[in-house]
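Re: folding output
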Amino acid sequence: MNKGKKDGKTASITIVLLIIGIAVGSIIGYGANAGQVGSLQTQIQKLETQIAGLQANKTQLQGQVSSLQDDKSKLQDQVTSLESDKVGLQAQIASLQNKTQQLEPVILAVRFSPKGGAASQVMYWLGRANKSVHVLIYSFTLDSIGDAVLGAYQKGIDVKIVFEKTEVSKYSEYFRLASAGVQVRNDSNPALMHHKVAIIDGSIILIGSFNWTNAAEEDNNENLLVIRSSDLASTFEHEFQMIWAVGR
């Protein structure tokens, strides 16, 4: 009987201990879960702080984008204004060019012989040629001018020269130029081809009594006029082409 009471008491103690263990476990488990919840809440707070910072950055960047768009709009307005100014300046340039053309012809140089620099003017303008050199010349024996003609020809410039046939002698530049490949012809007029004219680039005319000879440069009284005029050059070019076409 005492043994039964003792076993029942033991069982009761065991049950109480079991209940206490479950309660303690629950308390421990609850404490662990509470710790995890606190940690997660801390992480959430950090994330919310980061999100707030990013939103602030976003707002700042949106402000910068808006400012840049305003700057872009201002620059576009400036470009439009400058393009309008460009058109206006181009119109002014065209107007000035028209006025310049209306003021033609322009006298660029006047030279007299003897020893007045006529030959150097001829060589100067031959050296400035860019497209064409067309010449009608009565007498041409001066080597220095012949060198200038060859220089123009060697640059690929269209060089054509008509000589007065009665003046083509062993001293003439005709043979030297022809052998170098320059296009040369003799005038076919049974009388004299008495021109002394060069048309350069369709706009510059060299004209006067000055033959391209040493005598004209050193001894004779001669004159040379250098004129810039597209209209006048066109008139002389027409004369040149007529004489060139029948030359041989």
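--- second protein (sequence, then structure) ---
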Amino acid sequence: MSSLSILLITCVAGCATLVGGMLALRLRDKLHLVLGFSAGAIIAVAFFDLLPESLELGTSHHSIPTLLTFTALGFFAYTVLDRLTSLHTHSDEAGEMAQGATGRATMGAGSLSTHSFLDGLAIGLAFQASPAVGAIVAAAVLTHDFSDGINTVNLVLKNNGTRVLAFRWLLVDAAAPILGAAATLFFSVSEGVLSLILAVFAGFFLYIGASDLLPESHHSHPKAFTTVLTLAGALVLYTAIHIAG
């Protein structure tokens, strides 16, 4: 497949991200419900997309315990970064609290955008292997990019970010897969290295979903419906990933 066709595919992925993010912006008044869905979706991405891909790519280069260790490292590294960023949110000064929340929003949205860059990288490298493999990977990416847009916007809004900041990060997230695919025109990444990167990001996403989005979606809101939406988010992503794969 030509480089132009690959870039067009990643442009479609970027559009899916934009659509999901714009939906999240429109539903800000129902943010706790969208957060519940996003929590399930982002945890499902870790369990049903990133970890399986890491194991499939990496078992010929690394042991399974090694890959899972990198997942744990990703989880705990994100935990430490999150704690360091939010240390001064306990201050009584509103300005310092907002600054800490914005730092968490930037870290979370940046992590999702980096994952989107890796999505584009994966598409480009898969098409280098063969058109058939590339088509499968592209389909899998497209299925969860819509949710990526929702998750990126939610992380910013949940941490007291403005709609303008959320939209800026949404644009970054939408452009990331295109840049990732374009990068493969100039270099390649070995399967062994890519499997470790995916394992680390699985740990990132497990922390974001379970320790950040999920508790916030239940805070001061009815838990029954948000729990249903959390399960729905996981089910939608599970179904989409398995249909694509």
